[in-house]
User: Which sequence fits this backbone?
């Protein structure tokens, strides 16, 4: 019972992080680190919330949130790819820019109410004992998010598009030699990543909490970036990591209610400690799977 | 090649992790209240006089259905009462040295009276107060004062006790949930009052308390609310700055809620029971007038002022539609008894979670004693950092 509650909570609270980590994964597979994911999530959360308020349609909110996340990541893409700016520094700047701009623009939305996404139990499947409640009693956006992961895996590892994307992150010279512009691929990858991070923000504001508050992502975007490394740039592992983070958050809330004499302040660290521990284990056990050109900008002749 | 790649990767992931901790840590205001007496020194005349403006700083936004909204409404009352004074407001002021900068700016713009309205604005305010003995500060909720800095608050635990009475009478499971931020005395006091109220009508009632570590993190609030509901709680209370998410989550999950800070009954037409709220307007106006008149020192406001239910500084809101007549009548009787002084929510004996007597039989602690609360009462499930 308690385990089922924790796992349900893991999906509820981990899905926004999961979406953002899938987005970051695409971007990093193409060789661009985007620490601005936090900013993209915030823009998505606000954009999605605002459009849902205006139109009453949460699906339009998803679209708007995705576009908002994409727009701010476009700034990152431009600075990094066109101007050759440092990826880490630019990403940080984008993160703080996202925080500031959404706090400013979002002031009027704090008190707004929306209908948003609500859980839709899947017939029959949701009646399965244990599993049913955990997996099949969520909102439509969460279902879509989960289904997206195998799709992304398929595209990355079973299609030509996936090869091109991965080649951009590994050996952009080869890609360039075969007549594809690596910069273009990177632009598209960063934009796609921003879109997904934005949708992750929408999941947080329109599906999970039905609220907008300034800086409501509270570091979830940064965790998403960390998870991609933990996941060795593999979609399913990133999903696992995100739900591990969600489970740790749900766990600490459940543990508190048991009245165990453990300090809540210690429990607040648990999600981060677990992630850190996971990172260290993965680091020891595995050879590095990092895209070889991550962080570098291709500046070969003719690519400008 | 492989070696540098690995080093880069390790650096990257450690950096990212450190960053994630930093970002999340920034959102968790520290909580280390250390009560102390008034500071000495300062010989400037009549703080608060001769200004052309009055400053208000808020830690959040003005329409958070919560703490900041309540204080903002108070600032509007001041604006109306003193039309020839300019009211300067600054929202989203962090509880850091940034707050000092904002207050200094307000003083430059003519403010001789400043209301720092968040608990964590106290230390920055004390620093600014020392530099400007001619400026009067009214800090909300602080446990320290200075020559020109008084603190005000309300005994919100009184209506919270009544909210607990209401909650226990309406609950079917006898399991109540309470979502809080960080373990400062005022928070613990609210949890305790809520549980004591609940216990007074149902000795078996329990209150599960959950700390989110933040004053306003909707994600954690929704998590906490869902988690409490999953565990069987059917009434949720809270001590958070923004209250909307918890109340709406409770409503969507079909359980009841009691509000805090401001009347948010519109958010939960089905499940809203009642709420504990601030009524700062009259108090803010009176404090401002006292300071402008030059009588700050020696007034009731130059130390720690605590407004009570009988002063109408704290209130219990109207009941929600679902609360039946007999419950309303009973709760209102209890409220009258508190106002009359015949009922004290913390009348001894009060025991902590381990069963130790914290308030002796027959004792009726005053606000100052209660604000040193560092324990949870019997019947509360959950723990505080020791």
Assistant:
């Amino acid at each position: 019972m308690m385990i089922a509650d924790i796992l349900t909570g893991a999906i509820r609270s981990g899905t926004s992080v999961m979406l953002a980590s899938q987005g970051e994964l695409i971007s990093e597979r193409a060789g661009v680190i985007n620490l601005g994911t936090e900013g993209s999530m915030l823009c998505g959360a606000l954009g999605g919330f605002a459009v849902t308020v205006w139109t009453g349609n949460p699906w339009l909110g998803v679209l708007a949130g995705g576009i908002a996340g994409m727009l701010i990541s476009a700034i990152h893409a431009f600075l990094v790819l066109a101007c050759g700016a440092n990826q880490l520094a630019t990403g940080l700047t984008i993160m703080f820019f996202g925080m500031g701009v959404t706090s400013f623009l979002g002031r009027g939305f704090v008190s707004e109410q929306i209908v948003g996404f609500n859980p839709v139990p899947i017939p029959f499947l949701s009646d399965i004992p244990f599993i049913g409640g955990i997996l099949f009693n969520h909102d439509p956006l969460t279902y879509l998010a989960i289904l997206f992961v195998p799709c992304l895996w398929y595209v990355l590892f079973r299609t030509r598009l996936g090869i091109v994307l991965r080649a951009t992150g590994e050996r952009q010279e080869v890609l360039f030699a075969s007549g594809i512009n690596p910069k273009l691929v990177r632009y598209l990858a960063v934009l796609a990543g921003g879109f997904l991070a934005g949708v992750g923000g929408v999941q947080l504001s329109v599906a999970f909490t039905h609220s907008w508050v300034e800086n409501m992502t509270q570091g979830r975007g940064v965790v998403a970036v960390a998870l991609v490394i933990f996941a060795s740039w593999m979609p399913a592992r990133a999903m696992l990591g995100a739900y591990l983070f969600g489970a740790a958050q749900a766990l600490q809330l459940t543990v508190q209610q048991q009245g165990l004499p453990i300090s809540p302040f210690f429990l607040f660290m648990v999600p981060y400690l677990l992630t850190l521990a996971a990172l260290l284990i993965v680091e020891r056990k595995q050879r590095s799977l990092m895209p070889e050109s991550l962080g570098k900008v291709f500046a070969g002749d003719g690519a400008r | 090649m492989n070696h540098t790649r690995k080093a880069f990767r390790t650096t990257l992931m450690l950096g990212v992790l450190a960053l994630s901790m930093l970002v999340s840590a920034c959102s968790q205001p520290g909580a280390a209240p250390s009560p102390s007496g008034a500071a000495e020194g300062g010989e400037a005349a009549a703080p608060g006089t001769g200004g052309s403006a009055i400053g208000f700083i808020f830690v959040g936004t003005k329409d958070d259905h919560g703490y900041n909204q309540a204080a903002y409404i108070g600032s509007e009352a001041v604006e109306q009462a003193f039309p020839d004074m300019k009211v300067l407001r600054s929202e989203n002021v962090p509880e850091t040295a940034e707050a000092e900068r904002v207050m200094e700016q307000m003083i430059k713009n003519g403010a001789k009276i400043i209301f720092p309205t968040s608990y964590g604005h106290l230390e920055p305010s004390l620093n600014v107060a020392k530099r400007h003995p001619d400026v009067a500060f009214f800090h909300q909720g602080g446990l320290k004062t200075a020559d020109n800095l008084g603190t005000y608050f309300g005994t919100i635990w009184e209506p919270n006790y009544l909210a607990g009475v209401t909650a226990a009478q309406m609950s079917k499971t006898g399991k109540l949930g309470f979502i809080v931020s960080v373990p400062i005395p005022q928070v613990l006091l609210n949890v305790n009052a809520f549980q004591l109220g609940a216990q007074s009508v149902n000795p078996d009632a329990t209150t599960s308390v959950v700390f989110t570590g933040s004053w306003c993190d909707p994600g954690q609030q929704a998590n906490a609310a869902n988690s409490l509901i999953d565990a069987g709680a059917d009434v949720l209370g809270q001590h958070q700055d923004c209250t909307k998410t918890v109340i709406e989550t409770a409503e969507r999950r079909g359980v009841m809620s009691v509000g805090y800070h401001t009347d948010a009954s519109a958010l939960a037409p089905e499940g809203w029971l009642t709420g504990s709220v601030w009524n700062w307007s009259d108090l803010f106006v009176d404090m401002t007038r006292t300071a402008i008149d030059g009588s700050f020192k020696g007034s009731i406001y130059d130390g720690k002022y605590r407004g009570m239910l009988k002063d109408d500084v704290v209130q219990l809101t109207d009941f929600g539609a679902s609360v039946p007549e007999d419950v309303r009548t009973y709760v209102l009787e209890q409220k009258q008894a508190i106002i009359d002084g015949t009922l004290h929510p913390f009348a001894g004996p009060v025991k902590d979670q381990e069963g130790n007597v914290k308030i002796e039989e027959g004792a009726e602690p005053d606000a100052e004693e209660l604000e040193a609360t560092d324990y949870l009462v019997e019947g509360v499930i959950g723990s505080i950092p020791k």
Observations:
- Chain A has a mean pLDDT of 89.
- Chain A touches chain B through 63 residues (CB under 8 Å).
- The first helix of chain A runs from residue 2 to 29.
- The beta strands of chain A are 120-121, 137-138.
